[in-house]
């Protein structure tokens, strides 16, 4: 479970959570509600890129808006 930190505390001490980020990340809250999640780059984005290859099928013109003028 990622730890939580308020936006105020994050703003005041943003380098500390970044230096101490774990693989589960840090949830940033505003008024007690989660608004963002800070993840280490190796844990989040890199595993997602290319993960859907071969699972999707494009039907039609991918560059078209579908509007007929």
Summarize the structure.
The chain is an alpha+beta fold and about 70 residues long. The protein has helices at about 5-10, 15-20, 45-50; strands spanning about 5, 25-30, 35-40. The N and C termini lie far apart (about 50 Å).
Features:
single chain; 69 residues; alpha+beta; three-stranded mixed sheet; 3 helices; 22% strand; elongated
Coarse structural class? alpha+beta
Shape: elongated
SSE order: EHHEEH
For the report, how would you describe the main beta sheet? 3 strands, mixed
| Average pLDDT number | 77
Distance between the termini: 51 Å
**Helicity level, as a percent range?**
10-25%
Uncertain spans? none
Q: With helices defined by DSSP (H or I, 4 residues minimum), what is the helix count?
A: 3
Q: Evaluate the radius of gyration.
A: 19 Å
The spatial strand order of the largest sheet comes to 1-2-3
Kindly state the number of beta strands: 3
Please report which band the strand proportion falls in: under 5%, 5-15%, 15-25%, 25-35%, 35-45% or over 45%: 15-25%
Structure description:
The chain is of the alpha+beta class and 69 residues long. It is built from three helices and three strands; from the N terminus they run βααββα. The chain has a three-stranded mixed β-sheet with strand order 1-2-3. A hairpin with a 2-residue loop joins β2 and β3 (33-38). The termini are far apart. The model has no long low-confidence stretch (mean pLDDT 77).
